[in-house]
Structure formats: structure tokens, C-alpha cells
Amino acid sequence: MQSENSSVNTEAKKIQTSKVPPSEGFREAFLLHLADTTLILTQRNGAWCGHGPILEQDIAITNITLDLIGQSRNFYQYAAKLINESSLAPSPVEKAGDEATEDSLAYLRTEREFKNLLLVEQENGDWAQTIVRQFLFSVYQYFLFEQLQNSKDDQLAAIAAKSLKEVTYHVSWSADWVIRLGDGTDESNERMQKAIAALWPYTGEMFMQADYEQGIISEIHLLKDRWIEKVKTVFEEATLAIPENIFMQSGGKNGVHTEKLGHILAEMQYLQRTNLGAKW
Amino acid sequence: MQNINTDFKTNPINNKASQVPPEERFREAVFSLLEQVPDPEVPVLSILDLGIVRDVKVIDDKVEIIITPTYSGCPAMDAISMDIRFKLIEYGYKNIKITQVLTPVWTTDWMTENGKKKLLEYGIAPPKRSTNNEDEMPKCPQCKSANTKLLSQFGSTACKALYQCNDCKEPFDYFKCH
Fold first, then answer.
1. How many Cβ pairs closer than 8 A exist between chain A and B?
2. How far, in Å, CA of A117 to CA of A41, rounded?
3. Quick one: A141 exposed, middle or buried, by C-beta within 10 A (0-12, 13-18, 19+)?
4. Do B158 and A71 touch (CB under 8 A)?
5. Would you tell me the crossing angle of helices A127-148 and A220-237 to the nearest 10 degrees?
6. A33 and A210 in contact (C-beta within 8 Å)?
């Protein structure tokens, strides 16, 4: 990190995307990281469809998930375009002689090739755990996209700006639920605190910079400051405590996952793996 | 991004005796057909009312329609592209291209006043201007009372929220400000 001008007014200071162009292949990897993360959360949340605690919330979580799959498709489509235009190492599908597509990237890459955050592959658990996962992720996504909408990469900026409007609703919905359950009954509070304890170790990774994020996101610590500030505010209102001195897991961004991802992919990719190119 | 291009022989519409440049008349004719294409999820609105159509480009006999999604995951985009194509084919257009763009980002501010009126008559509270105070409650489309409450931020489609009127007790959809 270069030394900065100390006269910067913190209020006016904006997170800037770096002026150094990303190294070759970094942009594709970063897009896949964004696409994989939204796809895996889509797959997890999708399991709630028809099982939500009440009809309105079943509809809410599936609507949020619909936004996520839309974002994921946009990232995959753009990644596929860049991969096909580049002379980088062949994507798994090119080995078979085809071009990369949104579907091939989602269905034909292995666990080690997936770059999603560990947080989103964690189990749905009870409603409390699903809510905590959504809230911690949506707040992160909000501040990340706020930064990416100023990216010099026009298409990335466009997807981020589009998604940001949707994520604004996800943050507000999940924050409402965090407060409602945290500041609800003894049992709901206890379940929330349990969910936070289970998921917290997977939040540190969001702010550990992967190689491919260099030149795309700089000043990742500012992202962390904003994230923790929002989480604290909502947790305080919800009478929930933030765990302290927790060891943070990492690896998801670089393809080292918890065992859960393998199970997700086995189910999600089964049809395409066994019937390559199958269509509706 | 979806790029569909057909390369059939052309059948340009017949425009005679007018001072308006032919391409401009061609463009207007296309717009008047697009006015007849309803949104699949809110059929009372045309795709023009909704602000989905960003531009129509006409070069010789080729027509390109530029559309933008309301939400990233809007499942209606494919249906809308197909409906546009069918409508234009029905009127003899053959060289049609439909292009999806993401910028500028769609906003409910692009919804026409006529569209908002139609929504209200249909029983859906129209979106406020995005610059207005978000705390202001939408009015009940049935009894027009402003005494309403939010039931759920997510309604029957991605673009709607569910409200209820405290006076007439009727639940109603509100087209979310976006």
C-alpha cells in the first residue's frame, strides 16, 4: 500500500479503485469469485423455497435469491466473454473444445476452482442462521458494490451499480430480521447468538485480499471498517454481541473450501455432469 | 447479454408522401408497435410505460431494440424479447435485433405518468419519485387512504412490496421505488 496524503478528509474520502491495471487473468478470477459467491448463496437460499417460516418470508427470501442469481449470471456471462477473448490457460470447458459460457462456468468447474466465500457455503441451519448469513453477506456486498460501481471496467461498474439497488433492500430486510429475532424472545436471542458464533469465523476472509483482487479493490480495510460499523449498529439494537478473539478461517477465495461445498456442487452440478449439455 | 439476429429478407413498411425522413417514420412506427407489447408480469403496463425500452435504432431495413432489465434476475426479460420479436414479425419486420444493456441503471422514475395512472386503476400503488421521502407511505389504491402499513418488502414479484390499508383493511401491492 502506498503512503497516502494525510490531509484527506475522512468524511469526504471515498474508497477508490486502484489506478494500477490488474494483472493478466486477475479480472477473470475476480469475476468468477463474485459469480461463484452469489451462485452458491443462491443454491443455499433456494432450499428455503416452499419452506419459509411464513408465506411472506418465503417469498422474501426467494425474491432475494432471484436477485442473486441474476447478479451471478451477469458476472458469469462477462467472465465467459473475457475468458473466450483471452489467451489464458484454457477453462475447463475449452479442454472439451467448446467456448466458456455462463452454464459451463457454473456447472463444469470443480470444487477447487470455485472461488466463493466460505460464508455462503455454510448450512442454512435454522431461520436465525440463514438470516445472520444473509445479513453479514449483504452488508459486505453493499459496501463492495458501492466501491465497484466506480470501477474503470465499465461492465463491472454497470453490474455493480445495478446490483447495488437490489442489495440495499437485502440489507434492510435482513437487518430488520436480525433486530426482530435478537431483540425477541429468550429463545430467538439464544439462537441468533449461536448462529453468529457459528458463522463469525468465516467473515474474516472477506477482508483478506486475494492476489486477483489487487489492482481491482484497493483499501480493503476501509471496506472492513464500514462493514463492522454497520454490523455493530444493528447488533446493538438487536441486543446481540459480536464475538471477540475468534480465529478466522480463510481459503474460499482461492478454492480451498469447507467440506460443505463439495456436497453443494454434487447436487447442483449433477444433471450437467451426467447429461452434458442437457437443456430444458 | 443476449444478441439475437435474424437475417431474413426485408420487408420495409410502405411510407409515402411525407416530409418526415423515412427512417424517423420507421422508428415511430416501431414505437407504436412496442406500445402494444405488455409487461408479462404487470400486463396493464406496456414495456414503454415501464421504461424498459431505452432506444430504437433503424438502419435501412434493420431495426434494433435496446432494452434494460428492471431487476438483475428479472425472469421476464426473455419473454419480453420474444414478445417484441413476435409483435414486429406480425407487422412484417424481419431484420430485428434485440440488445440488452445494463447502463444507465433502470429506475422507476422512467415509468410514464400514464403508466402510473394505469397501475393505480389496476390496484397497484405506483412508485414514488426516488428522490422523494421514502418514509411517506403509499396510498391505498382502493380507498385512497394514506394510513397504510408495510407487510413485507418483497411481494408477488421482485418489483413489488406488500402493504395493507389500515382504514379499509385491504392488502395491496406497491410498485417499489427503485
1. 66
2. 9
3. buried
4. no
5. 140
6. yes
Q: Mutate one of B150, B153, B154, B157 to test the A interface: name it (highest A CB count within 10 A).
A: B154
CATH code of domain B3-100: 3.30.300.130
Quote the CA–CA distance of B100 and B87 in Å, as a whole number.
18
In chain B, residues under CATH classification 3.30.300.130 are 3-100
Tell the residue number behind the cell numbers 412490496, with chain if given.
Answer: B161
Cell of A43: 443454491
Which residues between 173 and 212 in chain A have a beta carbon less than 8 angstroms from any beta carbon of chain B? Answer: 173
* Largest pairwise CA distance in chain A: 60
Domain spans, chain A: 26-272
- What DSSP character marks residue A222? H
- Facing B158 at nearest CB: one of A67, A154, A163: A67
Residues of chain B neighbouring A64 (CB-CB closer than 8 A) = 154
What ipTM does the predicted assembly reach?
0.79
Q: Does B115 lie at the interface with A, CB-CB under 8 angstroms?
A: no
CB B106 within 8 A of CB B77: no
Indicate the CATH number for domain A26-272: 1.20.1260.10
Closest by alpha carbon to B76, among B107, B111, B41, B104? B41
What's the Rg (C-alpha) of chain A? 19
User: Would you call B73 and A57 a contact, using CB atoms and an 8 Å cutoff?
Assistant: no
Q: How do B53-59 and B171-175 pair as beta strands?
A: unpaired
B175 vs A contacts (CB less than 8 Å): none
Q: What is the pLDDT of residues A246-261, one digit of tens each?
A: 999 999 999 999 999 9
Contacts of A277 (CB under 8 A, 6+ apart): none
Interchain pair A158, B156: CB under 8 A: no
Q: Rounded to whole angstroms, how far apart are CA atoms A64 and A17? A: 27
Residue A95 has pLDDT above 70, yes or no: no
Helix/strand number for chain B, H first, E second: 4, 8
Contact B76, B67 (CB under 8 A): no
Q: What digits encode the pLDDT tens for the residues B27-78?
A: 999 999 999 999 998 899 999 999 999 999 998 889 999 999 999 988 888 8
What's the whole-number mean pLDDT along residues A27-54? 97
pLDDT digits (tens, 9 = 90+) for B111-159: 999 999 999 999 999 998 766 566 688 999 999 999 999 998 888 888 8
Q: Please determine, for residue B108, whether its predicted confidence score (pLDDT) is greater than 50.
A: yes
Chain B residues with beta carbon closer than 8 angstroms to that of A71: 72-73
